[in-house]
Amino acid sequence: MYKLLRYGLWLASAVALTTVGLMAYLAATFDSNDYKAQIIQLVKDKKQRTLKLDGDIKLAFFPSFGLNLGHASLSEFQSEKEFVSIDSARISLALLPLLSKKLVVDEVAIKGMKVTLVHYKKGATNYDDLLTKEETSQPETPQIKFDIASVQLENSEINFLDEKTGVQYAVKEINLHTGRIANQVPSKIDLSARVQTDTKPKLDIALTLKSELTFDLNQQSYQTRNMELQADGSAYGFDNLVVKASGNASANLTTREYTAKELMATTSGIYQKNKFSATLDVPGLNMTKEKFSGDKLTLNAKTAGTMGVNAVFALTDMTGDAQFFNSSALLELQMDNRTQHYQMRLTSPVSGNFEQQQLNLSSLIMAVNASGDSLPNKSISSEMKGSLQWDGGRQSMQLNLAGGLLQSQVKARVGVNNFTRPVIRFDVEADQFDADVFMPKEPQQPDQSVSAGAGEQPIDMAMLETLNMQGSLRLGTLKAANVKLAQVRLDLNAKDGQLNINPLSAQLYQGNMKGSLGINARGARGAAVFTLAQKFQGVSMAPLLKDLADLELLEGKGNVSANLNASGNTLSALKSTLAGSVTMDLADGAIRGFNLPDRIRDVQNWGKGGEPSPAKSVNKQEKTEFSEFKASFNINNGIAHNEDLSVKSQLLRMTGNGDINLNNDSINYMARATLAKTLDGQGGSITVPVHLSGPFNAIKYRLDLDAMVSDSVKKKVEAKKEQLKEKAQDKLESKLRELLK
Tens digits of per-residue pLDDT, 374-397? Predict the structure, then answer.
């Protein structure tokens, strides 16, 4: 036994010495660079790609078998364009496990790797050939155990270009460090990278991931524990973006079992100067091939700005399988502005189909509560019921609602197709709606130092460029901009940047209106073009002007016709480009602000103790009555010009011409008023020029006495001429009679 042991040790020592000697000899004599040409040619023949090995290839035999590679690159398929390159790489294998047919990789370390992935317009990619499996018969090889001690990837980069959409992404500064990677062995993962794009929308995100990964390649199962993910930067219009996620998850692709536990995700940032934050909480979620279940999923979101929003969305009692699911949904929404507070609560059973991306809220209940000093009784409560169907596969949505919405009773049907470029169809009917209740209050004392148009908020028409909408809106009563309407109907059609509302009709102030409104968002030089064609019949002007602009200038009832157009993206620009025509035909009314017959009588008494003021402010208590008022205006660049004023009453006749300047809200108008002394006109008449001028909120009128006196003197001279002519005629006739005698 002793001899056998001794001979065995001698034999093992001899084998070991022989092996070490052989390895030492190979290390001293073997030069792997001698095989560069063969390796490059093999890649060229097999893959039709060009391999460049610029650095040396070095083999190591102790303490582990390994390969060190310098700078190398691989071209694209049948091209010299670079596909991937590395600055250096090192792969080392544990030597002793190889003798027992086990592959144990001590380390994989790659530095400066750059990969360019391209998705071509026709659908192919620049790596399709690398994914193709060759159908060649190969001899059966012994099973090799997969085991890597660590992976190191430093300062690497992956670029992706989609030629069809023009989107280009770059994943830069990739650094990956792992622990041991082997079947059923927990491995620590530490990854950091930066994701960027130069195309719009902009994306610049710094990403870090730490986790513990366990996998079993034979069973195709994967598990991650203690995951910590964080992303910081800006993306798609979001600034100061911070996203964090943590939790545990597992997946078994063979049995189709998926679980998520203690999953928590938070995000915060700024969007369009408004701060926001959101939290997603998933305590437990289980999904198998036959069953799907979860206790609760909760999403909380908040925004801060002009309108503060706080939303809570929850799914409870989730059941189903890999294809179908059922649950109960809850959405609570709170919104606050400076003067009003809104609360909305939405509940419904939910069912859906994962595979077909279908969602069905079959019994939808929506309760809305609002409070604020401007609301009726300072609070409003209402409830609507209906259904919602969502089909992501067909890209369609259908919503039906009926019931109370704030102060209105509403019936609404809304359909949407093609989520990429939505096609919207709607039919909405409501008994009443007060838009002014929900509008913010205007400042009590606006800054008069700011010139008109300075600092104006532009009218944003960008949405119209992609809006495809068609439908009808009917309202029993409507209040907007303090104007009160009834039996309102708007048939709307929007497509390719053009919005048309026809008819735009309603009953208002004892009359009715009917016409159309058009908006072309693709006007000249990027400015929207507005066109209005409207006819008002039998409308009472006094309450309309009072409600619309708090003006008490005109009374009467009649017809108004307007054909107008303007272009611009601010209110001042629309005023300055306003053009078209307006005609008015009123009866049995009055011009408020002055009593013209009384003022003319003052002029008649001039020189008899009366001395009228040459200029006076309008007095709302005074008015000039008429039985007929007709006028037409030609409008150009925001200035309405009139030449054909005709105002009549029993004693008064008035004509005139002048301008109304909508750019600075002022008037400059000269009227000629003729007043008869008696109803039958036997007592003669007097004509007085009246000049109206000044801003709308401070109009003044002046009787032009100089013109009146000149006219009066002219009439007296003409009368004297007639008298002298008559006397000369009488004398001539007398002389002739004498001569004849």
Answer: 776 777 788 889 999 999 888 999
**Tokens, residue 53:** 């090995």
* Residues 65, 70, 71, 74, CA torsion sign: negative
Q: pLDDT by residue (tens digit) across 505-539?
A: 999 999 999 999 998 887 655 678 899 999 999 99
Whole-prediction pTM value?
Answer: 0.61
User: Taken in order 468, 505, 489, 430, is the CA torsion positive or negative?
Assistant: positive
> What would you measure as the largest C-alpha separation in the chain, in angstroms?
197
Taking a C-beta distance cutoff of 8 angstroms, is the pair 611, 632 a contact?
A: no
Cα–Cα nearest to 649, from 669, 683, 624, 680: 624
Q: Give the pLDDT score at 357.
A: 86
Element (H, E) at 429: strand 423-434
In contact, 693 and 699? CB cutoff 8 Å:
yes
pLDDT of 611 over the 80 cut:
no
Report the DSSP beta bridge partners of residue 412: 401, 428
Judged by phi (left if over 0) then psi (alpha if -120 to 50, else beta), residue 317 lies in: left
Residue 10: band (very low, low, confident or very high) from pLDDT cuts 50, 70, 90: very low
Answer for the pair 614, 702: CB distance below 8 angstroms, yes or no: yes
Q: What is the CA radius of gyration of the chain?
A: 44
| Residue 73: strand pairing partners | 52, 85
Tokens coding 233? 């930067």
Name the helix (H) or strand (E) containing 282. Answer: strand 274-287
* 577 torsion bin: left (phi>0), alpha (psi -120 to 50), beta (else): alpha
Q: Are 499 and 491 in contact (CB under 8 A)?
A: no
